[in-house]
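[Discussion] Sanity-checking designs against the backbone

I'm trying to build intuition for which residues belong where. Below is a structure token string of 155 positions. I'd appreciate it if someone posts a full sequence so I can compare it with mine line by line.
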């Protein structure tokens, strides 16, 4: 199941990456190779492309495969990410995603934008500007199209 294997393999990659930062040459080689193995396995099996040590808080849920996360992207707690989502750099800056954000399929979040807590990014949106907390954004480029309510947050 992609939903669980993406997260598990990502966390294994992080664990072994941190262990590979040792002064011991043997630990660097062994744990570094294990980190690279789990990272590549996740990329092949699930389409998750990210660094060895992504800045992702607990509770992330990947609902589908093919997600790209650039090295400096920061993702908060309880974020839901659907299929074919890209977090990309622009002018050397990466996105910051707040807690409990939902990002629908085929969305792109580019540059140093901040997506506020408990926001929703609509399918196919290209986010180039900050998203205030509790707002729904959609379109190309994304603009505010509504407010998050209990009804529309539970999809």
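Best answer:
Here's mine. Compare freely.
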């Amino acid at each position: 199941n992609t939903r669980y294997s993406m997260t598990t393999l990502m966390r294994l990659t992080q664990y072994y990456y941190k262990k590979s930062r040792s002064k011991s040459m043997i630990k660097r080689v062994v744990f570094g190779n294990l980190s690279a193995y789990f990272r590549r396995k996740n990329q092949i099996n699930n389409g998750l492309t990210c660094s060895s040590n992504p800045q992702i808080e607990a509770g992330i849920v990947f609902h589908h495969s093919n997600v790209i996360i650039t090295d400096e992207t920061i993702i908060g707690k309880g974020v839901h990410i659907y299929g074919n989502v890209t977090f990309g750099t622009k002018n050397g800056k990466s996105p910051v995603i707040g807690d409990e954000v939902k990002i629908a399929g085929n969305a792109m979040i580019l540059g140093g934008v901040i997506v506020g807590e408990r926001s929703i990014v609509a399918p196919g949106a290209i986010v180039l500007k900050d998203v205030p907390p509790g707002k729904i954004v959609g379109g190309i480029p994304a603009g505010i199209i509504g407010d998050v309510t209990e009804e529309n947050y539970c999809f």
